[in-house]
Amino acid sequence: MAKISAVLMAELSELVKLKAHLGFVPVSTEELAERMGQSQQAASQHLQQLERMGLVERRRMGVKFAARVTPAGYELVDSHYSQLKAAVEGQKKDMTFEGRVFQGLGEGAYYIGLEGYRKQFSKLLGFDAFPGTLNVKLEDPILIDQKRQMRSFEGLKVEGFANGKRTYGGARCYRAMVNGRFPAAVLVIDRTHYDDSVMEIISPVNFRSELGLKNGDKVTIAVFL
Length: 225
Fold this sequence. Notes:
This protein is 37% helix and 28% strand. The chain is α+β, with helices and mostly antiparallel strands.
């Protein structure tokens, strides 16, 4: 995820307040400057920077310009908000999640079985991970926001590596317990198809056979931070 200066984050957040993450909104640099208490020239320069970074799109709408916050821009604001919220409310030492099991893309067995990952998981977590992930869908918006807050904790770092001509991204993992019985770890993967409503979990056991889990079954995950 991109990192930007505080002044750019403030302007991006101001655009979100104008609902520009929902679509193109007519807005002038004069209006932005007034809302932010800065010069029109500064507001214009910041808007151009955000556009170059792919966080904002602009187009002409009649005699005015309209701006839209891109998904990448909104994700940045959302993550910033979650971190601020955690700092203000006080970070917990552990978090509890509840969600429903669903069938993933089938890539977990391949990636978890790679030697470059397997050895690191064993060293960091003290167990050999079953080759596959348990995929859990969070349905409660509060828990989805809590998952975002979890990212502000450092976790255990899994380094990316190269295998021949292919490179594999890094990740972080957080020690956890599933249904109060089985040791596990929640993964936050650098390159993933999933958003923060999904938890990818590894463990030394095959949860589906050990717990008789089927798609749609509820599970509880306690994450220790």
